[in-house]
Amino acid sequence: MKTRLPLLTLLGFTLPLLASASASDNPKQKPNVLFVVFDDLNNRLGCYGDPVAKSPNLDRLAARGTVFTRNFCQQPICGPSRASFMSGRRPDSLGIWSMTKHLYDVHPDAVTIPQWFMRHGYTSMSIGKVLGGYGKEADFKTLSVPDRRTGGKTKDEFALPNGAALPPNLAKNLLCENRDVPDEACFDNVSATLAITELRALAKKPEPFFLALGIFKPHSPYKVPKRYWDMYRREDIPAIETPSRPRNAPEIAFHANHEILGEPSAHLTLDEEAKREIRHGYYAAMSFADAQFGRVLDALDELKLRDNTIVVIIGDNGFELGEHDCWGKMTLFGWDARVPLIISAPGIGKGGAKTASLTELIDIFPTLTDLSGLPSPPQLEGTSLTPLLKNPSASVKSAALTQHPRPALYWGGGPQALPTMMGYALTTDRWSYHEWRDFKTGHVVGQELYDEQTDPLETVNLAGTAEAAAQIPALAEQLKIMTKGGKP
Description:
Elements: E1 7-10, E2 13-16, H1 21-24, E3 32-38, H2 56-64, E4 66-68, E5 71-72, H3 78-87, H4 91-94, H5 103-106, H6 113-118, E6 123-127, E7 176-179, H7 187-202, E8 209-215, E9 222-225, H8 226-229, H9 258-261, H10 272-302, E10 309-315, E11 320-321, E12 327-328, H11 334-337, E13 341-344, E14 353-355, E15 359-360, H12 364-372, H13 386-390, E16 400-406, E17 421-427, E18 431-438, E19 444-451, H14 466-483
C-alpha cells in the first residue's frame, strides 16, 4: 500500500506537500538568492539611461547581469503589487486591489517565493518592507526566521543616538528634509546592516539561503542625509518632459495626487521651486537607497558569495514626478507601470546585457525556481525569464498587463470595500491600450491608446481616431483574454 503525502491547499489549488523535496534537491548545490525590493523606484537610474542619476551600485549589478527595460508591475501601489509578485498571481486572481486587504487575510494558505524556497531546503528570511504595504509589522506567515521590519515606525524619520538634537533642515517643502546626519540615522541603513549581519551568518551554513531585503526609499517623504542632496545640483536635474495631461485623455485616467499634494480638503499647491525641490529629493533618496544596497553587494563580494548567488532587484511600482500633471503613482501611464528589474544569475548570460522584451513582476517567481532547479507551484501566472537571460533578443510574451482601480484609494469601507471602476493597461511591442470598466458590470467607460514607437512619452490619446479604430478591436480582445486568466 502506497503512503499518501499530506495535502496543502495553495490559493485554491491542492497539491502534494513535497516533504522529501529538500533531500532530493541536493540543497548544498543550489544557488543562494538575494531579492531586493525598492519602494517607489522608477527607471530614473544610470543603467536605464537617466542622464543625471547617480546609482553606481545598481549600475554595478547591471554590469554583472541583465537589465529589463520594458518590465511592468501588475498594480502601481505597494500592497497589491507585492501580494501579486510574491505569490506569482495577478491582482484580479487574488482579489486584492487596495491597501485594506493583505495576502494572508484573503488567502490564508498562500505560499510566497521565500516560503516555497524554504520548503525546498533553503534558509529563508526577510528584512524590511517586502511583502505587504504599511500597517503590519510582520508580513510573512512563516519563514525560517520571523521577518523583521527594522526601525518600526521610524522609517519616515531621522533618529540620532540617545535622542540627540537634529541639525537644521535645509529643505523647504514639507515632504523634504535635508539634514547633515549620518546614514546610521536612517531606517534603511539599519535594515542593510542587519542584512549584512545575517549574510555573515548564512555564509557559514551548509544549506543555501533566500534573503529578501526591503529598502523603503526612494518612497516619500524625501528625508535623507545632506550628502545625498549634495550629489546633485538642482539646476542639473531635468525639467519635467511632459508636464501636461495627454491630449484627449479621459478624466478617469487621473486622480487627486494626494500622496504628494495631501488630502483634497487641504491640497498643496506646488510652485516651480517646490516641484524642483521634490524632484531633487527623489533623486537624493534614490542615491541613498542605492548606497545601502551597495553595502549589501559589497558584503556578498567580501564573503565570496557572489559566484553562487542570484541577485534580483526590482521597484514595486513606478512613480510620476510631474509627468502628465501627476505626482505619485496609481495611474496606468508608463512612469507608474514600468519598473526596474535587474537579474544577475552567475554563469547564465552575459554581464551588461539589456533586453527590451516585455516582462512582468509576476515572472520573478517562476524565473527564480527555474534558475534554482526547483519545481514551480501550479498557480503561477508568470513566465520564466531564463530564455531572456540567455538571449536578450528572445521573447517570452506578447503583452504585459497593469491595472489600477478608481477610486485610486478606497479606505472607508474596510477590507470588504470594492472599487467603482477598474482600469487595465495592455502593453504590446508597439501599443499601450487602456480600458476603464465599471467594476460591477464590466461596461467600458473609457479608452486610451498610445503609440509607444512614435509617442513613447504618451502625450496623445489616439482613441477615437481612425488609427485607433484599426488597432483597438484586436487589443481589446487580447485584453479580454488576459483579464480572464489567459496567457499573454
